[in-house]
Amino acid sequence: MEFLSSLFYFIIVIGILILIHELGHFLAARMTGMRTEVFSIGMGWRFLGFNKITGFTFGSLPADIDLKGHTDYRLAVFPIGGYVKISGMVDESMDTGFLGKEPEKYEFRSKNTFQKAFVLSAGVIMNLLLAISIFGGIALFSGEKSFETTTIGYVQKGSVGEIIGLDKGDKVLSINGSKVSDWADVVQWLTTKDLGDRRVIELVRDGEAISITADGGKFLKVFSEKKTLGIEPKDMRILILASIFDKPAQQAGIKQNDTIVSINGESIAGFANFTDILKANPNKNLYIEWNSNGKVVGDSIRTDERGTIGVQITEVFTGKISNRQYGFFESIAFGVNQTVNSVNLLFSSIGQMINGNLSFKESVGGPIMIAKQAGQQAERGIVSFLSFMALLSVSLAVLNIMPFPALDGGHIVFVLIEGAIRREIPIKVKLGIQQAGLIILLAFMAFVVYNDIIR
């Protein structure tokens, strides 16, 4: 079931991102008077499609069919990409049917440099607009919630938080000289802000002001080893979603909507804290306190051999929460800001991989990793799922604008060179570079998929 769920959400995410990207190329081509022969979601053989000449059909179209300028809208068998075939353009199809002919007015090669560059960059523009729309829409309809605390309630063993020296009860005051006012500030400064830079953390521990310094490069390498930040805020509690019939928790009286307060006298702050204690104590009696309808009750509950007590849980923050609401134009500005930050973070990550501070093998994910992440984010709710889609849309935009053959950025380089020298680069040269780039991209994709499998 988990595999099918991940596959389902993967198809939704990838399908939307590809549709939006290719729709950008398609609309820009139409706006500049170019003829679009194919609009395909998926790669490879035509599975089904529609055009105004043959109508709705399955399978490939006849090789000699003349669509009279109409577009064939199709689904192809491999859901790993998509494309818009524009007349008179050397692209992934390697079509050379226009060789030796004068450019027609509806062909890509007959247009000026600006029009060509616009069509080629339109997919990237659409992906960025999608990200802005998602981030802005979340801000408009959900607002921005902040946990009004900077005090740490739990530090997981082996996590980044423990490695750099954070401890339960620490109240973080500032990081790199910038005051932190809520939990989101703490997390952002410890993860994405100033990626690769040293972290100087000013905090209060047991009433005494102290300073912790974490080397930026080592900090990133720890993250690349798949160690989590591993810290939870004070006042994070476990909310019971369901208590399984005839299991230890249900027998003790724990029921839906109760919250876990402590285990063996230790206050519990979040999912990791709760599960770590249970898993470390299989087949043992633990004194658990929980809040039920405003009353704190407790009982000795015995875990099973797996260290579980038979509950389905989620996290709930019981401290002060602020919720900033955004107007329409404020939400657009928020979406733009979040998208710009995502682009900057992505380029920073690429730079850190080049510098060796981030592992390429651990940092780059392919379709299997995307599918797994899509399923996990969907389980966390619609906001998490949409945020994941927005980040992936930014990644797709940045990847495609790279000046590499077979990518949109590579095509733009050709167009700019042709505009500068005022003549077309020989078609055979374009085809050769395009083929080489396509082979390298396919090899890279194979490596990423292999890396996904062994990881």
Describe it.
The chain has 13 helices and 17 strands. By secondary structure, it is α+β, with helices and mostly antiparallel strands. Helix 8 packs across helix 11 (382-400) and helix 10 runs antiparallel to helix 11.
Short recap of the structure:
Helices cover 45% and strands 24% of the residues. By secondary structure, it is of the alpha+beta class.
Task: Write the SSE topology.
Blueprint: H1 2-31, E1 36-51, E2 55-58, E3 72-86, H2 113-142, E4 144-147, E5 152-155, H3 160-163, E6 171-175, E7 178-179, H4 183-191, E8 199-205, E9 208-214, H5 216-224, E10 231-233, E11 236-243, H6 248-252, E12 259-263, E13 266-267, H7 271-279, E14 285-292, E15 295-302, E16 311-317, E17 321-324, H8 328-355, H9 360-363, H10 367-380, H11 382-400, H12 408-421, H13 427-454
Antiparallel strand pairs: 1-2, 1-3, 4-17, 5-10, 6-7, 6-8, 8-9, 11-12, 11-16, 12-13, 12-14, 14-15
Helix pairs in contact: 1-2, 1-10, 2-8, 2-11, 2-12, 8-11, 10-11
Observed structural traits:
alpha+beta, single chain, 455 residues
β-strand amount: 15-25%
Number of helices: 13
Task: Point out poorly predicted stretches.
Answer: none
Look at the structure and give the mean pLDDT: 87
What is the chain-wise order of helices and strands?
A: HEEEHEEHEEHEEHEEHEEHEEEEHHHHHH
Radius of gyration: 27 Å
Number of strands: 17
End-to-end CA span: 21 Å
What is the share of helical residues? 40-55%
Shape: elongated
Instruction: Kindly name the structural category.
Output: alpha+beta
Oligomer: single chain
